[in-house]
């Protein structure tokens, strides 16, 4: 009886803790839900690159104008110069622990950036897990 209660308690704890480990993004209609974002428009050159060579997680260099727009809209002092691009379907439900400076493609020529995920390029690089560790 004692072992049965212990197993039952363990199962209960594990099943109730699963939600604590999932910090993935939540989407509604292909857009981030319940999270402050800013939207920026891509240049023709950036759109051409994406149409021809998009891969989930690819890096995209921002223009000076886009960088300034992000700083102003997000009200941050230091922001990214490079974004990591994703489509919502690529990351829905996945852990987002180490995703920083991400741009989510939500319609042709536009990306949305979760404000709380915007940091300097150095901060983004320093927060990535050590692949050898």
What does this structure look like?
The longest helix has 20 residues, at 2-21. This protein has helices at residues 2-21, 44-53, 64-74, 88-91, 121-126, and strands spanning 27-28, 31-32, 37-41, 58-61, 82-86, 102-107, 110-114. The protein has one domain. A 5-stranded mixed sheet has the order 3-7-6-5-4. The chain contains 5 helices and 7 strands.
Question: What topology emerges from the helices and strands here?
Answer:
Elements: H1 2-21, E1 27-28, E2 31-32, E3 37-41, H2 44-53, E4 58-61, H3 64-74, E5 82-86, H4 88-91, E6 102-107, E7 110-114, H5 121-126
Parallel strand pairs: 5-6
Antiparallel strand pairs: 1-2, 3-7, 4-5, 6-7
Short description:
With 133 residues, the protein is α+β, with helices and mostly antiparallel strands. The chain is 38% helix and 22% strand.
Largest sheet: 5 strands, mixed
Secondary structure category:
alpha+beta
N- to C-terminal separation?
42 Å
Q: Give me the number of helical elements.
A: 5
Instruction: Identify the strand order in the major beta sheet.
Output: 3-7-6-5-4
Shape: globular
Keywords:
133 residues, alpha+beta, 5-stranded mixed β-sheet, two-stranded antiparallel ribbon, 5 helices, 7 strands, 38% helix
